[in-house]
Design a protein that fits this description.
With 304 residues, this protein is of the alpha+beta class. It is built from 6 helices and 12 strands. The chain folds into 2 domains: 125 residues, OmpA-like domain (60s Ribosomal Protein L30, Chain: A); 110 residues, 2-Layer Sandwich (60s Ribosomal Protein L30, Chain: A), CATH 3.30.1330.60.
C-alpha cells in the first residue's frame, strides 16, 4: 500500500512538471497578463414620441465587424424589454428596425437578406418576437454608414409609427453626417412568407430581373417549401418608383412580376404563381432621392 501511494505521488509530481514545462516554457503563458478589452458603448439610444421621451440613456447595441449577431449586455436586454412593453401597451403602433452597416460591409449578404444591415435588424426583431411582439408589427430597413468609419458606435436605430403619431428611437449623439439620412420613414417585412428584394434587382424603367446571391438562396428554399406544401401558392407584386405615368408604371410593375415568375418557373416551381402590379401606388419608401427610388423598384414575393 505504501509503495502504491509513493508511486502515485511520483506520478503526480511528474504530471505537474510536464504541465509547467508545456505552459510556461513552450507556450510562454506563465506570468503574462490577460488583456481585458473594456466594452464601452455610447449611452445615447433613446425612444421618443414627438416631444415626449419614452426611453433614454440606453447603451447602443454592438455588432462585430462583418457579423449580424448582436453582442448583448444587460442594458441592451432591458431596452428590448421596455420597447416590447411599450408596443404591448400601444397596440396601434408599428416598429421599423433599422440596421446600419459600414461601407466596407456593403457587399456582405447573410441568409436571405441582401445586405448585412437588414440581417442585423432581423436579429433585433427576433429578440422582440421573443418578448411576445408579433412579426407583422415590425418592418426592417437598412442604412449604410458613409465615410471612412471602421466601427459602428450606433449600429441600430428604431422608428415607430401609428395611432396618428410618429415615434422615433434614434441615434441622437452621432455626428450629423455620420449616417446616410436620405432614407425617410419606411421599411419592408423581409420575412420568409413576405420577402422583398430591391437592391439593384431592377434598373430604372427595366423589367430585366437580376437576382443576387440572397434571392437565389431564398428562391431555392421557396422551391423546397412549396414542394412540401402543395396547397400554398406564390403571389408576386411588382412595384416602381414615381418616375413616369401611372399606366406605364402599372405595366412596368406587371412586367417585373412576370420576370420573377419566369425565374421561379425555370427553377422548377410548379405551384400556382399569381402576378400583380401596384406600379408606383404603394412605395415602401419615400421617392425623395435616387437611393429610395431604387429601393421602390422591386417585386414582393408572398407565400399564400
Amino acid at each position: 500500500m505504501r509503495t502504491l501511494l509513493l508511486g502515485f505521488l511520483v506520478f503526480l509530481l511528474w504530471a505537474i512538471g510536464c504541465r509547467y514545462w508545456y505552459v510556461c516554457k513552450i507556450k510562454n503563458h506563465c506570468g503574462q497578463k490577460v488583456e481585458v478589452v473594456e466594452d464601452v458603448r455610447a449611452k445615447t439610444l433613446r425612444l421618443v414620441d414627438k416631444d415626449k421621451t419614452i426611453l433614454e440613456n440606453y447603451d447602443h447595441f454592438r455588432f462585430d465587424a462583418n457579423s449580424a449577431v448582436p453582442v448583448l449586455n444587460d442594458n441592451n436586454k432591458s431596452f428590448i424589454e421596455q420597447v416590447a412593453k411599450y408596443l404591448k401597451e400601444n397596440p396601434g403602433k408599428t416598429l421599423t428596425v433599422v440596421g446600419h452597416y459600414l461601407e466596407s460591409e456593403k457587399d456582405i449578404s447573410i441568409g436571405f437578406h441582401e445586405n448585412i444591415g437588414i440581417a442585423r435588424a432581423d436579429q433585433i426583431r427576433k429578440l422582440l418576437m421573443a418578448q411576445g411582439i408579433t412579426e407583422n408589427r415590425m418592418l426592417l430597413d437598412a442604412q449604410m454608414v458613409t465615410g471612412d468609419g471602421t466601427n459602428l458606435s450606433q449600429p441600430v436605430s428604431f422608428r415607430l409609427a401609428g395611432d396618428d403619431a410618429e415615434l422615433v428611437a434614434n441615434n441622437n449623439g452621432g455626428t450629423p453626417d455620420e449616417y446616410d439620412n436620405n432614407n425617410p420613414v419606411g421599411g419592408q417585412a423581409f420575412s420568409f412568407t413576405n420577402m422583398s428584394f430591391s437592391d439593384a434587382n431592377f434598373d430604372f424603367n427595366s423589367a430585366v430581373f437580376k437576382p443576387g446571391p440572397a434571392f437565389i438562396a431564398y428562391a431555392d428554399s421557396v422551391k423546397i417549401y412549396l414542394s412540401e406544401n402543395d396547397e400554398k401558392f406564390l403571389k408576386l407584386t411588382g412595384h416602381t418608383c414615381d418616375i413616369g405615368g401611372d399606366d406605364a408604371n402599372l405595366k412596368l410593375g406587371k412586367a417585373r412580376a412576370r420576370s420573377v415568375r419566369d425565374y421561379f418557373r425555370n427553377l422548377g416551381v410548379k405551384t400556382n404563381i399569381e402576378t400583380n402590379s401596384e406600379g408606383e401606388t404603394n412605395p415602401a419608401y419615400s421617392n425623395e432621392t435616387e437611393a429610395t427610388k431604387s429601393k421602390n423598384r422591386r417585386v414582393v414575393v408572398q407565400i399564400k
